[in-house]
Write a structure and sequence with these properties.
Elements: H1 3-12, H2 18-27, H3 33-47, H4 57-64, H5 73-80, H6 83-90
Length: 101
């Protein structure tokens, strides 16, 4: 597991505060949105227990507890579209959306 993956794991387990973890991810000299997005996409899709229903109650709870403003484009997309469609749209967002906090 690389350092970025280890940090994501610690954030997910609440071993590191979300705000601190996000800052560490975004401020890293090797930060690459595409790499980070791909890793998070894979983790989220793989964490969904029922692969036939990506819009489960568990997924909805996870989306609703993301500690970001509910008006951020990324959060609106996740709440509006089915999981795979939302992620396909997220990757197309302009670069200015990548580091919103």
């Amino acid at each position: 597991m690389n350092p970025q993956e280890q940090l994501i794991n610690k954030i997910a387990q609440n071993k590191i505060d979300f705000e601190l973890g996000l800052k560490l991810l975004l401020d890293n000299d090797q930060y690459n949105f595409q790499t980070l997005f791909t890793a998070l996409n894979n983790y989220i899709i793989n964490a969904i227990p029922n692969k036939t229903d990506y819009y489960s109650e568990t997924y909805q709870t996870a989306i609703n507890t993301i500690p970001l403003k509910s008006t951020f484009t990324s959060i609106v997309l996740l709440k509006t579209f089915r999981t795979k469609i939302a992620f396909a749209k997220l990757v197309l967002l302009p670069e200015s959306e990548n580091k919103k906090q």
